[in-house]
Amino acid sequence: MYDPSDIDDSVFLHSNIKKPDQTILLVSTPEEFSDFVSMALFEAGAEGIEIKDAAKIIKDEFSEKYLNYNSIISVLDPSADILSKPTVVLSTVFPKDRIEDIKESVRSYLYDFPTVDLDSIRFNTEDYFEVDWLRQWKKSYTTFSAGHVTIIPKWMKPPMKCGIPVYIDPGMAFGTGQHVSTRLILKLIHKYKFRNKVVLDIGTGSGILGIAAAVQGAKRVYMNDIDPIAVKAAHENAALNNVTDKVIISEADLCMNAKFPIDVVFANLTAELLIRLAGLIKPKMNLCGHIFCSGILVAYKKEVIKAFVKNGFDVKKELDDGEWCGIIFDT
What we know:
Helices cover 28% and strands 30% of the residues. The chain contains ten helices and 14 strands.
């Protein structure tokens, strides 16, 4: 089994191969806005984002071993008390000649969210050097529990206090399970009995939710995603958890790959996609079916509820976590 302690600390340092046509964009923001900034960066074309706790870096006596330490410090707001108000620094790589357009794109995206204080968002850039990001990520990633499920990276052993284990290696796919939207669904399904149920996991990502249902005794789990990288990762993670005989994983949109009727739907999507799903899914579900929805910003919760109620669903439970919420709908 892979042991993260075998990773040399040098992976935290840049290699000496400079990429002159690319640059790292650093964005500092109060932690409460980090999800919005992440979405803005992905919308602008980011393929991956690293997030660092500013206070932790400043207090860490070894922080200056990072070659981008000075860049991180310079992007912080000198007037902000980051030790009392959590602040993070997001970094991602873009072509150097697009940086100014990217900054403007991010500002424009955030402008549509009135709760975001644009004056608190600061930018900086630094030269890009090749880094073994995957090894660095494995060094920092760890197990965590949500509800009664414990997510375990495949290179680590289960913790002493472990819920129902789900092993993953997300690779480049979206879905490490650490995002609050995934955690919300894992909390919502805490007491649900999946034995002999037919489940549909829409936008499966690395497959965490669908695999969790399969591990807990679901008869059949349909898992789909429009991203072929996610489909590949979900296949590999299903094999890690010995549930390949229970899952059918497809590159498909919304509910297009499943055979019906469905007992349970996982839909960790955007509000826009959930509203679209509300008008499609009920005829495909059993009379006593349940939809576990997440990925909903609290600001759009009423619109999502309205769409599902209009299509004959009842609201069973709502669960908020900061700016995000999860909802259970019953047929």
